[in-house]
Specification:
Layout (H helix, E strand, L loop, with lengths): L12 H11 L4 E2 L2 H7 L13 E3 L4 H14 L2 E5 L16 E5 L6 E5 L4 E5 L4 H8 L4 E2 L13 H7 L6 H4 L6 E7 L5 E3 L19 H5 L8 E8 L1 E2 L3 E9 L2 H14 L4 E5 L1 H10 L2 H14 L3 H14 L9 E9 L2 H17 L3 E3 L2 H8 L15 E4 L2 E3 L4 H22 L2 E9 L3 E10 L5 H6 L2 H5 L8 H20 L19 H14 L15
Parallel strand pairs: 2-4, 3-4
Antiparallel strand pairs: 1-2, 5-6, 6-10, 7-11, 8-9, 8-10, 12-14, 12-15, 13-14, 13-18, 16-19, 17-19, 18-19
Helix pairs in contact: 1-3, 8-12, 8-14, 10-11, 10-13, 14-17
The structure holds flavin-adenine dinucleotide.
Length: 534
């Protein structure tokens, strides 16, 4: 992480005038505070400063902006809500313009008849869900936990895990069609699109170009419009939580639940993360969570009962040293959900799991998109995750190796005040995400101030810089990635943080490079991302 970013090259008067003409002068920003904020992410601060931030509102404006930037020879860094932590959208050189997509935040069309929804790429998952709610509709994958702000364009460029992922897999598996803007300003539209050529309704029409742009970390073009598949929102749901003696056993149980296909989503915590979660849950958060649980139940009586159970269970319903697994089942009938819950309980029993209060599972569903206060630790520490997606059979061994590495580092972690924890979840019937997270005594920065609720931030300490602890967290993150690589684990959010090309066949990278040469011949989109040259 760089403490002082070098200045950017000045923007030419020509480019500034052209961009101002396209988006209007009010939608160009180059004040120091905005440039500094957009030049860092939750993990890192760029070595360079941005030249300018430009915010188009429509696909036409976006296409004109990209064309102008290309012709001016600058780099372009698309940014949604900026909630990623893989140095992906920050400037890699001294001539980068940030492309802020947050004005492209509209739900453009909802079609209950065709079961599709089309959004602009800067639309947040929360806004999408709010717009669909009155129709009784939902997308199959319906958002990451950052969905209060994080965008659908960002979620497809990085791929997402969480709500609905247990049944339907990642965000890209809900995509029907994309409208992409290429470096020369042309638009590329994927999918079958009806007689007017403009109404996407089905993803597959020959080779799947939509898939090509999903998970590209914004290196193969700019997502302008996105059409997603709809389902009727399942009317029945139930949840359960279990505790297990070890992480390996919990992962065996999670794998078996994934194979059985019974969970809409799953979420597991190790004892380290449980402790942090419990410490962070302020009274305000507890009250908000209880309110949300009551509001979600169909009758007030049921709501109060659920809230009372949670209040009585309090924060002490998980044994300090146990691994907890939280699952939600959902479906079209009460009986179907009950059958899935019975299977979950039977699987948990087989692995000596003990059923505990389902507080966490209930709160997660009742408040799916909480304010992102969790990006700082309970004392104001910095936070960063690192992850790998493992096959069901490999997950326990990968976890054991990472856990063993952390144990070997414990004395050093303790000396520098570094804490860690693990988050686990499943992706459809065939993968498990293992996500270690670190908290360390490095103070918060503008990016944190831009996201954390002011009242919450006011309760935290500003810890200031701690280069030694940050260096050790960097080293530990790299070691986790090395363990993941050894086991052939995959990654979302590749950005500039995870190895990618190294594990691909030579023929694979040839095809990828050929695509890049067509969509972005100068390498202007997020240079250095996805292993492309910087
Ligand atoms: C508190 C918190 C909770 C989180 N929970 C989850 C979770 O549950 N599941 C999960 O998967 N992730 C989670 N994340 C990670 C992160 O929120 C996601 O990766 C999210 O998808 C980022 O979206 P964004 O709009 O903020 O994208 P950004 O961070 O702004 O950008 C991400 C990448 O996408 C590119 N990009 C953005 N928009 C476009 C576009 N229109 N066209 C082309 N490229 C584009 C950027 O250049 C960058 O490479 C969490 C993060 C936080 C801080």
């Amino acid at each position: 992480m760089s403490e002082t970013a070098a200045l950017a090259r000045p923007v030419s008067a020509d480019l500034r005038a052209r961009l101002a003409q396209i988006v209007g002068p009010d939608n160009l920003r180059d004040d120091e505070a905005s440039l500094a904020l957009f030049s860092e992410d939750v993990w890192s601060r760029a070595d360079h400063r941005l030249m300018l931030i430009v915010a188009p509102a429509t696909t036409e404006e976006l296409a004109a902006v990209v064309k102008a930037a290309n012709e001016a020879g600058v780099s372009l860094a698309p940014r949604g809500a900026g909630m990623s932590y893989t140095s992906s959208y920050i400037p890699a050189d001294d001539h980068t313009v940030s492309l802020d997509t947050t004005r492209m935040d509209k739900v453009l069309a909802i079609s209950p008849e065709d079961m599709t929804v089309t959004v602009q790429a800067g639309c947040s998952w929360l806004a999408l869900n709010e717009a669909l709610k009155p129709h009784g509709l939902r997308t199959p994958f319906w958002g990451p936990m950052s969905g209060i702000y994080s965008t659908i364009g960002g979620g497809l460029s990085q791929l997402n895990a969480m709500f609905g992922a247990g049944h339907y897999g990642t965000s890209s598996e809900s995509v029907i069609a994309l409208t992409m803007v290429l470096a020369d300003g042309r638009t590329l539209r994927t999918g079958a699109r009806g007689p007017d050529g403009n109404t996407p309704f089905y993803r597959h029409y020959g080779p799947d170009l939509a898939g090509l742009f999903c998970g590209d970390s914004g290196t193969l073009g700019i997502k302008a419009e996105i059409t997603l598949r709809l389902i009727r929102t399942p009317q029945f749901e139930d949840s359960a939580s279990f505790s297990f003696e070890t992480g390996e056993i919990m992962l065996e149980a999670l794998a078996e639940m994934a194979r059985a296909g019974i969970a809409a989503e799953t979420c597991g915590f190790d004892p380290g993360l449980t402790k942090v979660r419990m410490r962070r849950m302020s009274m305000t958060a507890d009250v908000k969570a209880l309110g949300a649980v009551i509001a979600k139940e169909k009758s007030i009586g049921k709501g109060l009962l659920a809230a009372a159970k949670i209040a009585m269970g309090g924060r002490h319903f998980i044994e300090e040293n146990e691994y907890s697994l939280h699952m939600t089942a959902e479906g079209r009938s009460k009986e179907g959900v009950a059958a899935d819950m019975a299977t979950a309980r039977e699987i948990a029993r087989r692995f000596n799991g003990v059923e505990i209060e389902n507080t966490i599972a209930k709160v997660i569903r009742a408040m799916p998109f909480p304010p992102p206060n969790s990006i700082l630790g309970p004392e104001g520490e910095s936070w960063v995750p690192v992850h790998g997606h493992a096959s069901l059979s490999n997950a326990p061994a990968i976890f054991a190796e990472i856990r063993g590495y952390f144990d070997s580092m414990q004395a050093e972690f303790d000396r520098l005040g570094i804490h860690n924890g693990f988050l686990f979840s499943s992706l459809a019937t065939n993968a498990i995400t293992i996500e270690p997270v670190f908290f360390w005594p490095e103070g918060y920065r503008p990016i944190h101030e831009s996201m954390v609720e002011p009242a919450h931030l006011a309760r935290l300490k500003q810890l200031g810089p701690h280069p030694e602890a940050t260096a050790l967290v960097t080293q530990a993150r790299e070691q986790v990635k090395a363990i993941c690589k050894k086991w052939g684990a995959a990654h979302f959010q590749i950005g500039r943080a995870y190895p990618y090309r190294e594990s691909r066949d030579a023929a694979f990278t040839d095809v990828l490079d050929a695509v890049k040469a067509v969509v972005d011949p100068r390498g202007m989109f997020n240079p250095g991302g996805l292993g492309f040259p910087q």
